[in-house]
Amino acid sequence: FNLNYGDFAYLGANANGAGCYTGGFNIPGNCGITFAPGLVVSGDISSSTIRNGWTIYLYQTVNSILAGNNIYANAGTAINTDSAVRNQILSNNVYAGGASGMNINDVSANNLIAFNNVYFNSYGTSNGGGINIVNSGGNVFASNRIYKNGTDGIYATQAGTSNNILSANFVYGNGSHGIEFGSSNNTGIANSI
Fold it and tell me: In this predicted structure, what is the pLDDT of residue 14?
C-alpha cells in the first residue's frame, strides 16, 4: 500500500473534534490515515500533504516509510506509533498541529526518525511538544530540527524507554525543556543542541 504525491485533508473522526479514541481505545479508521492489522499492516507515504485531519497512526506496523511529507494543521498528534517496529520516518515537515508533532509509543522499537522538521505544534499552549518517546526503545532520532513547540522539544518517559539514540538533533525555543528525560534509561545523546 503506497500513497505518493497526494493531498489528503479532513481524514478521521477528528476533524469535527470527536477524536479517534472511544472508551480509552483507538478505533481504527477513526484516526485519519491508519496502518493496522486488519486494515493495512505496512506501506509508504511519500511526497504528500496531510492536513486538517487527526493523525497518521502506525499500529503494529512493520517496515513502513513516511518520507518527504508536509503534515500540518491536524487536530491530534501528527504521527503516532503504537507497537510499530522497523519503520522509517524521514524528511517530513510536521507543523502547526493541535497536539504533539510525534508520539513514539508503547513498545515501538528499532525505528529511524531522521531529518524531520517538527515545529509550531501546540505553540503557545501546553497541549503537546515536538517528539514524545513513551515506553519505547532501540529507536534512532537523528538530525531532526525541533523548535517552537508548546512543551518539550523531545520528551522521553517510562521505564521501557531505553536504549534510544539521539544524535545531531537541533532542539531550541520550545515552551519547556529542549530534551527531558523522565523515568527513561540508557539513552545516548551525541552532538544534539
Answer: 43
- Mean pLDDT per 10-residue section of the chain, whose length is 193 residues: 89 54 54 75 91 88 95 91 94 95 93 97 90 95 97 92 94 95 83 78
Residue 3 carries which DSSP code? E
Largest CA distance in the chain: 42
DSSP per-residue codes, 40-103: -S--EEES-EEESSSEEEEES-BS-EEES-EEES-SS-SEEEES-BS-EEES-EEES-SS-SEE
168 and 190 Cβ atoms separated by less than 8 Å: yes
Q: Is 14 helix (H, G, I), strand (E, B) or coil?
A: helix
Burial class of residue 177, CB neighbours in 10 A (0-12, 13-18, 19+): middle
Q: What is the rounded distance in angstroms from the CA atom of residue 73 to the CA atom of residue 119? A: 11
Q: Cα 85 from chain centroid?
A: 14
Distances (CA, A) of 161 to 88, 104, 106, 135, 184: 18, 10, 9, 4, 5
> What does the pLDDT read at residue 26?
56
